[in-house]
Structure formats: structure tokens, C-alpha cells
Amino acid sequence: MQENTKMAKGDQTRQKIVEAAAAMFNQRGYEGASLAYLMEKTGLKKGGIYRHFTSKEELAAEAFDYNWTVARRARMEHIDPESAGVERLKQLIANFIEYRSPVPGGCPILNYAIDSDDGNPLLRERVSKALRGWTRRIESLVREAIERGEVSAGTDPKTVATLIIATLEGALMISRLDRSDDALRRAEQHLYQYIDHDLAPRSAKKPALRKEKRSR
Amino acid sequence: MQENTKMAKGDQTRQKIVEAAAAMFNQRGYEGASLAYLMEKTGLKKGGIYRHFTSKEELAAEAFDYNWTVARRARMEHIDPESAGVERLKQLIANFIEYRSPVPGGCPILNYAIDSDDGNPLLRERVSKALRGWTRRIESLVREAIERGEVSAGTDPKTVATLIIATLEGALMISRLDRSDDALRRAEQHLYQYIDHDLAPRSAKKPALRKEKRSR
Predict the structure, then answer these.
(1) How far apart are CA B86 and CA B164, in angstroms?
(2) What's the burial of B37, exposed, middle or buried (CB within 10 Å: 0-12/13-18/19+)?
(3) Of A173, A175, A194, the residue nearest A93 (C-alpha)
(4) How far, in Å, CA of B65 to CA of B57, rounded?
């Protein structure tokens, strides 16, 4: 019984470290993250942190996984469970803009992509995995939309997924610099148009533009 | 005469510091950049660096300007001086992918946009200015293309510029994570299609698709 309580406390401390590290790495980057900062944020001593994490690399990887879980949840919630195909794809795009992760610092993939560029293979692998997962999610929605006849059969799901992610992440970068959602809004409208117009089967093109337009 | 030589030497040292700092900030980020690292790279002592730059903020801003000048030059060179409008727009897109800055670390705007997010107004202003300059450059090419009848009159230049930059920067981020140019190639093809198809005046749409296709 006592052993269980101890373990639970250890888990709680570990979780506290991961959460503090998640905000730290997302805001300050890998190089800018420091043990001193983490000690201040958690109120723990060096030994109390090293008991749970043996290296900065390991902690950064755990922190990224936490950040990604939270960001993905924010994007995936508020999706109508009845929706499918193109409608669901559009909800994913809208959610990227409407529902941000509560962890300060912005999209973890964008932040870590810059950061994990050089010399941190563990972190790099986690970020790549998150990006692959997100890409596959969109690819499967595109395939669903093709099966439903909403998207033309010749469409390459990988290209659509890549373009949606690139456009949103790039627009997020601009929006952060501009301190305005303007770029994200333009990206959103462009992607809806791209889906409704460029991807729609030839015969459905005109009706799709009107029918699928979302009132948001 | 001696005074002039001294000044020239001072300028040379200053330039050496800026160049070393440019690579450092672009690769390690603002928080990750350190005086110790810079001393090692330049072979200068602390006082020798502080003689030229009074603060990390000031040095980071100078380093960004240097990085942006070099990156912009790489993108603007190799543009056919005879080209105009849509053709020039496409060359700018191709150059973003073909000709990278010799400074290691990737696109300075992408790197600094993440970095200058919090608490460095001087650096932030430089990065914003660079982004505004790049946006205006593309906007003016879109206006030129409208005047030449290559792009439909109702096109909003700001939207086109925002989308081109967002798509390229987002694809660059993906390409860095993937260690492959695949995302950039898909983005490039998408942007050509967007320009040739979505932006072309209604009457010119079909011929434009064939005529404007570049053999690269």
C-alpha cells in the first residue's frame, strides 16, 4: 500500500517535470532550455529532476510527446463525429486555427522542426513520427473523400496532406510574426477553395463550391 | 592614413563577428547562442566582441540582417532579367527551392520567427521587416501579372503573396524534418498549378496551363 503511494508520488513528480519542461522547450527551444530554469519552475533540486530523467535529450523527447498529445487533442476535439470525408477534412483545417494548444509557444512540430534539425536524433525521431501521424490522418480522410466521390479519383492523398500541413504551418509562422490571424484566415479560405474546386471530381465541381461552403 | 587603416581593421573585425554570429543564431536560436561559442568561433576575447556590440539583442539583429541579405540574394539571383509577371513569379518559387543561402541552418525568417516570438522587440522588428519586404516583392509581381493580363483582375495580391510564402516555408519545414525535398517539390508543383489555373483569367485558363508549364 505504502509502496503504491510512493510510486504514485513519483509519477506525479515526473508528470510535473514533463509539464514544466513542455512549456520550457516549446518556448525557449532545445538550446535555450536549462536545468536552472526547470528547477525554478518545478521547485525541485537537481537530484530530484535527474532521478526521473537521465539526459536533456530524454526529457526533451518526453516533453515533445506531451506537447504533441495536447496539441493534437485540441485539433481533434470539436470534430463532428457524424462528419466524414471532405467535411471532416475542413473541420481539421478550421480546428488548426480555432483551437490552439494550451501549452504556450505555438505548434510543437513547427518549434521542434527548427530545433531538432541538428544533433538530437531521439527528439528528431519523435517529431518526425508526429508529423507522419498527422500526414497519415489527413491522407486517410482524402482516401475516404475519394471513396465517397467528393474528391476526384486521380488525387494523390500524400500531396494533399503535404499541402494542407505546409500551408497551415507556414501561415502560422507568418501569423506569429504579424501577431494577427490574417495569414491563417487566408490560408484557410485557400484550402477550402482548393478542396472544393481543384480536388472535386470534374462533374461535381460547380455544385461542390456552393454546397460545401461552410457557414463559420 | 593610419586612422583609416585602424577603422578598416575595426570594420573587418565587426564583419567577422557578424558572420560568425549569423551562423550561430541561425543554427542554435537566440536562447542557444552564447558569448563563449562566439569567442571560440572568432578567436576574440569578450572585450573584443563587446567593443563592437553592446548587447546580445543588437548582435542578433545585425546577424539576422546579414542572414536575410544572403538568403534574399540567393533567391533573387538566377532570375532572368527579361522575365516579368507570372514567369518571374515562378522563377522566384523555383529559386526558393533550388538556391539556398550558404549560411547553415536554413531560412532565417523561419528560424527567427519561432525564436523572436517572445521578448526581443528589436529582432522581431527586423524579421517582420524582412517578411514585409518579401511579401511586397511578390505582391508587385502579382500586380504586374494582372496588368499583363496573365492573372485575373479580381486577384488579391496580398492573398497570393501570403499563400506562396506560407506554402514554401511550411514545405521547407517538412522537408527539413523529412531530410528530403519531396514536400518542397509538391509545394512547387501546386503553386505553379495555382498560378496557371486558379489565378489565370477565365478565358486564358486552358491555354495558360499548357503554355506556361516550365521545362525544368
Answers:
(1) 13
(2) middle
(3) A194
(4) 12
Domains and CATH numbers, chain B: 2-211 (1.10.357.10)
Is residue B168 classed as helix, strand or coil in its secondary structure? helix
- Helix (H) or strand (E) segment spanning residue B69: helix B56-76
Q: Which residues in chain B have Cβ-Cβ distances shorter than 8 Å to A157? A: none
Asked whether the predicted pLDDT for residue A117 surpasses 80, the reply is no
Is B131 within 8 Å of A169 when comparing Cβ atoms? no
Helix (H) or strand (E) holding A1: none
> What pLDDT does residue B78 have?
84
Question: What angle do helix axes B56-76 and B2-32 make, rounded to 10 degrees?
Answer: 90
**Minimal C-alpha gap between B37 and chain A (Å):** 12
Q: What is the spatial distance between Cα B60 and Cα B68, in angstroms, rounded to a whole number?
A: 12
User: pLDDT tens digit string along B162-171?
Assistant: 999 999 999 9
Residues of chain B whose pLDDT is less than 50?
Answer: 1, 206-216
Could you tell me the CA-to-CA distances from B92 to A172, B79, B161 in Å, in that order?
22, 7, 11
Query: Looking at residue A39, what is its pLDDT?
Result: 95
Are B127 and A187 within 8 A, CB to CB? no
Residue partners of B150: CB distance under 8 A and separation at least 6: B85, B86, B200, B201, B204, B208
Contact B176 A113 (CB under 8 A): yes
